[in-house]
Design goal:
Helix content: 25-40%
Distance between the termini: 67 Å
Strand order of the largest sheet: 14-15-16-13-12-17-18
Strand content: 15-25%
Oligomer: single chain
InterPro entries: Ald_DH/histidinol_DH, Ald_DH_C, Ald_DH_CS_CYS, Ald_DH_CS_GLU, Ald_DH_N, Aldehyde_DH_dom, Aldehyde_DH_Superfamily, Succ_semiAld_DH
Largest sheet: 7 strands, mixed
Number of strands: 20
Keywords: Oxidoreductase
Organism: Vibrio ponticus
Number of helices: 16
Shape: globular
Protein name: Succinate-semialdehyde dehydrogenase (NADP(+))
Structural class: alpha/beta
Pfam family, one: Aldedh
Radius of gyration: 23 Å
């Protein structure tokens, strides 16, 4: 660990502008998924510390919301610059606690910084309206105001980008944020909080708390002061949080599970489709919410796709994040490995075939990528998000049938289609029941576009100008007597 990295590596929580331990000094270890060694320890906090963070956030919010958009933009711009300046240190922390290859970690830092830059600019573009009135002696205005104190809960698979995608628009809108990062990856969030404080985010406006998930969540969601929840994670947990938030009618942004179909039609550019699979399926070892989970291949090109995909997958190098030329790091923990093994074994028991891959060793989080063929709709992998490096190839015969299969189930986050037909691209994009569609493209995430799903994949959108609106309320003002 370099001297600079050590300066961002914090083993305390950040509340009210101060680094602090739990009131009872309890803590828990965070493990490197590659080596299984201890990365460090963070406080095991609960209701008491969360309540204090809420109180301080409310105080800071009252001052921050009164600041000009220009001032908020300058602070966010400075945060962006600090993140960019500390790319190597942040990437190192990400790779140690999350396991992704260092090159991917650098890419995540760049992606995370882009949200801060974007919302620094969007802070100046929060416009209200003057609406033609129904009376000649009155005028109608709408104002956009910050919603207030925000609870943000982020996942472990993108420990930097999911923090900035939530916090940057909240700060730009004028809100305060209490962040609970995933227990597997708290150090990246704490490092970002350090840089935010250096950038000028006021004390109390941004707190980061680790510890008892249930106690922290219950305190945040039962508090009338907390007016919004932004959560990225599993659909099951999202439903539980939604129920808890109902008691105080909080505004919700939920980015939940996916089961993305990836459809290769008979007129597709096969080489481009293979490139798309390699990005959409194997980035971050398959641990992404927009991961291609069900790869539907037209029967006439099935053998060609299988052969070319196996040739590419066989070249992937699996190993520790800091080894040269690594493309696949470890899965986050043994539970994740066991889930992927269950999906593979279930598919094989029901008739799928292994075109490439081998079972992992019993004591490792590393998982050699699989390519499974002759996968059918009755297998677990067709219905559940695998969250691992397994490419499952399904056959299909026509557009109508594949659309019916792709839209099956309650997930609706993302889908991918490959075709040379413009009319088919329009037709299928409109017919797919997802919030995002990639047409002849496997990398769809970008700051400037709205990210989010339909059905049980969530509520709301992150990124783009819509991401700012998620942290605002619209106030209607009727001015009479004119």
């Amino acid at each position: 660990m370099t001297t600079q990295t050590r300066s961002l590596f914090r083993e305390q929580c950040f509340i009210g502008g101060h680094w602090c331990s739990a009131t009872n000094n309890a803590s828990f270890h965070v493990y490197n998924p590659s080596t299984k060694g201890i990365v460090g320890s963070v406080p095991y906090m609960g209701s008491k510390e969360t309540a204090e963070a809420i109180k301080l956030a409310e105080q800071a919010f009252k001052t921050w919301k009164a600041q000009t958009a220009a001032l908020r933009a300058r602070v966010l711009r400075r945060w962006y610059q600090l993140i960019v300046q500390h790319t190597e240190e942040l990437a190192y922390i990400i790779s140690r606690e999350q396991g992704k290859p260092i090159k991917e970690a650098r890419g995540e830092v760049e992606y995370a910084a882009s949200f801060v830059e974007w919302f620094a600019e969007e802070a100046r573009r929060s416009y209200g309206d003057v609406i033609p009135s129904h009376r000649d002696d009155a005028r109608i205005l709408t104002l956009r105001e910050p919603i207030g104190v925000v609870a943000a809960i982020t996942p472990w698979n993108f420990p930097a980008a999911m923090v900035t995608r939530k916090c940057a628009p909240a700060f730009a809108a004028g809100c305060a944020v209490i962040l609970k990062p995933a227990p597997e990856t708290p150090f990246t969030a704490l490092a970002l909080a350090d840089l935010a404080h250096q950038a000028g985010i006021p004390s109390g406006l941004f707190s980061v708390i680790t510890g008892d998930n249930k106690a922290i969540g219950k305190t945040l969601l039962s508090s009338p002061i907390v007016r919004k929840l932004s959560f990225t994670g599993s659909t099951l947990v999202g439903k539980e949080l939604m129920q808890q938030a109902a008691s105080s009618i909080k505004k919700l942004s939920l980015e939940l599970g996916g089961n993305a179909p990836f459809i290769i039609f008979d007129d597709a550019d096969i080489d481009a489709a293979i490139d798309g699979i390699m990005i959409a399926k194997f980035r971050n070892a398959g641990q992404t919410c927009v991961c291609a989970n069900r790869i539907y291949v037209h029967d006439s090109v099935y053998e060609e796709v299988t052969k070319k995909l196996v040739d590419r997958v066989a070249q992937l190098k699996v190993g520790d994040a800091f080894e040269p030329n690594i493309q696949i790091g470890p899965l986050i923990n043994r539970r994740a490995v066991d889930k992927v093994i269950t999906h593979v074994n279930d598919a094989l028991a029901l008739g799928a075939e292994v075109a490439f891959g081998k079972a992992p060793s019993a004591d490792s989080n590393f998982f050699t990528p699989y390519v499974l063929t002759e996968v059918s709709d009755d297998m677990l992998i067709a219905h559940e998000e695998t969250f691992g490096p397994v490419a499952a190839l399904f056959r299909f015969q026509n557009e109508h049938s594949v659309l019916e299969r792709a839209n099956r189930g309650q997930s609706g986050l993302c889908a991918y289609i490959y075709t040379r037909s413009l009319s088919r691209a329009w037709r299928v994009s409109e017919a797919l029941e997802t919030g995002i569609v990639g047409v002849n493209e496997g990398l769809i995430s970008t700051t400037v576009a709205p990210f989010g799903g339909v059905k049980e994949s969530g509520l709301g959108r992150e990124g783009s100008y819509q991401g700012l609106e998620e942290y605002q309320e619209v106030k209607y003002v009727l001015m009479g007597g004119i």
